Amino acid sequence: MDNQKLNASFTLIAVLVGFMIAIQFQTIKEPAERDTRDIWQLREALLKEKELQSNLLSEIRSNEEKLAAYESKRKQSKEQTLIDTLKELKIEAGLTEINVPGITLHIEPVIEEIKPGTPVNKVVSPELLKRLLNELNMYEAKYVAIDGQRVINTTVIRDINGVTKIDGHTINSLPIEIIVGVDGNNTAEKLYNRMKVSKSSEEFFIENLKLSVSRPNPNVTVPAYDNSIRIRYMEPEKEGGDS
Amino acid sequence: MWLPFIGLIIGIILGLLTEIRIPEEYSNYLSIAVLAAFDTLFGGIRAYLQNIYDEKVFVSGFFFNIMLAASLAFLGVHLGVDLYLAAVFAFGVRLFQNIAVIRRIILTKWSTNKEKVEKN
Predict the structure, then answer these.
(1) What is the spatial distance between Cα B49 and Cα B46, in angstroms, rounded to a whole number?
(2) Which GO terms describe its cellular component (chain B) (predicted)?
């Protein structure tokens, strides 16, 4: 009667126990494989691993070489050349700030000439500035900024209703600072010496202005031209045109 | 009577065929669970032979012992004390006792059977 039921539960438990034993047996048996290789077999295995290592190393090296080749190709590519050219042209056109050796000129009113009751000369005439610029250019000045306004090829200095303007920038207060950058320290020195004895300072003095020249500085910062350059009489050549 | 043994063999074959392997760090738990299962199994056989067998006690004892042993081992691992040794010891002692009792009962049955045969 009850025997059948008893047998059933016993069997079920027995199956479970057997299952557990089998799993345990398998789990324990697994790492029981001992390393029974002798020294020569071990050496062989080591050799194999070393070979693998050297293969991996050579692969890494070849990949690195490839990477370097790609890098140099990229550097020599047309794109890079164009970017470099563009950068050079921008520097030449005065669209970038630049750090070069150079000198600084100061224009200020002559203190001895300030008399009580008379207005102080606050204007630098454009003619004077033009002459100064020409002189600077003669002495190989390359990057010039007057009162923080970069002078480029298309810069105009003119008198508009009695106010001196440089490309729309008004000079209405003194003193002003002129930063002049050149290409090398020697040139800066030469420029300094020439400016010290130039006629410009006498011309400025006639207009009650004093032009002082600072010692050459190995690192002056000439600001960038901050307006956009308008090109009115130049057009890009159309590629493949009938010209 | 032979059905439980057949079940045991079936279980072993099943376990070997499924190729289940538990991770190394859990084999401790399984071994102690196996021990607990054995203890319960032999306890059941003894109870059956002594005619005090209760199925509820047997089945619940099976699962409860396994779980208790496993949790004891777990606690031992986390406390840094080899607590599973306590379970091994307890189950081992009970296993021996049960088997001894079973042996004696079978021996008595056998001898009484023999006497009966001789009398007849």
Answers:
(1) 5
(2) plasma membrane
Q: Which amino acid is at A46?
A: L
What is the residue extent of each domain of chain B?
A: 27-119
Cα separation, A105 vs A128, whole angstroms: 14
pLDDT at A159 over 60: yes
Closest residue, chain A, to B44 (C-alpha): A10
State if pTM tops 0.95.
no
Amino acid at A188: A
Contact B62, A13 (CB under 8 A): yes
Q: Determine whether the interchain pair B27/A27 forms a contact, defined as Cβ–Cβ distance below 8 Å.
A: yes
Single out the residue of A134, A156, A10, A182 nearest to residue B43, CA to CA. Answer: A10
The CATH architecture to which A99-222 belongs is 2-Layer Sandwich (3.30)
Whole-complex ipTM: 0.80
Asked if A19 reaches chain B (Cβ–Cβ under 8 Å), the answer is: yes
User: Distance of CA A216 to CAs A89, A91, A183, A184, Å?
Assistant: 26, 22, 12, 11
Rounded CA-CA distance B49/A204 in Å is: 131
Give me the helix-helix angle, B55-79 and B27-49, nearest 10°. 150
- Per-residue model confidence (pLDDT) at position A1: 41
DSSP letters spanning A117-167 = TSPPP----HHHHHHHHHHHHHTT--EEEETTEEE-TT--EEEETTEEEET
